[in-house]
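Thread: quick sanity check before group meeting

JM: Hey all, I'm pulling together slides for Thursday and realized we never actually wrote out the predicted structure for the chain we discussed last week. Dropping the sequence here so it's in one place. If anyone has concerns about the input, flag it before I start.
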Amino acid sequence: MPAFDPWDPAFLADPYPAYADLRAQGRVTYYEPTHQWLVPHHAEVSALLRDRRLGRTYRHRFTHEDFGRTAPDPEHEPFHTLNDHGMLDLEPPDHTRIRRLVSKAFTPRTVEQLAQYVTAFAGKLVDRLVEAGGGDLLTDIAEPLPVAVIAEVLGIPEQDRAQLRPWSADICGMYELNPSQETVAHAVRASVEFSEYLRELIAERRKAPGEDLVSGLIAAHDEGDRLTEQEMVSTCVLLLNAGHEATVNATVGGWWTLFRNPDQLAALRADHCLVPTAVEELMRYDTPLQLFERWVLDDIEIDGTTIPRGAEIAMLFGSANHDPEVFRSPEKLDLSRRENPHISFSAGIHYCIGAPLARIELAASMEALLDRAPTLSLAAEPKRKPNFVIRGLAGLSVEVG
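JM (edit): ok, ran it. Output follows.
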């Protein structure tokens, strides 16, 4: 069986056989190169996502020294300030307070009202692709749709939106395992530039509020409690990064999967009613976020193995989504799969707040391509990005007609 090696191109091309090997080895495995405990089974991953003995941070209970960890390099401070004030990397009570306030602005009704905009914009993008006879599904469809949507939500002017994707890509590089110094430098610079831009935007919205989410975050309050400016900045960045990275990679990866499973693509083209279950199955089959980390705040035990306080656990979403204990024939793509408890959007208190919007975007682009580009085909074999945690392709060249 292939080995778990997140830097091996062969593993990155297809990590799922290595995951099967990990699952066969046991319920938890220590991985020396990253000093993490790998958890590959769906049952444990699902339970640990809800286990309050684990945390995305430990700073609410311990100092770095108390926890046996080294403080981040001071030169990296802009990234950590930005990252550490977002609700994804906070624990209660701070997480509870911020998520409650954000939810007041980012409501289900707000998401539903976006559906018409999403559908119309997806149609325009696909029409351009058809007129050109093809192109790169990544840059022509997958990237511009969710970036435009979250920019619309935040109220970012159209002339400023070109900066968003590069900033996001640089910041998200820090979520890979053992990032290089060059990756760190890019993330720090992007954190500074994006934060400065958002502070100016927040100042403008304070003077002249609009109908956008930034104005909503400024106004959101609960019994006198409000978001700080840093919390607003970090929330906006989180919503952008989380609000499009997974959608971009799920769109491109999903179509690459469909092209490699022509029988399922034919079934989808014959019955567009499969779109809702197809979206869920493609998210499961090739999971955009492969790994999610948690700190062990109190000793836990997994199948007789004690994981001590101060350790780091790596929950393997991609492996959990292929666990035969939960999914029937997990290595088979089945767009009509009804029972599909995948964890691609996480679970527990950190369940993705933007999951409903992501589903709308994925369905809209898929339906537009099925309707307006029924002969869409692969033009060239794609190259994969050299990333493990955030899994995606560098591009997907397609033809129409």
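AS: nice. The domain at 55-297+323-399 is CATH 1.10.630.10 (Cytochrome p450). The mean pLDDT is 94.
JM: adding both to the slides.
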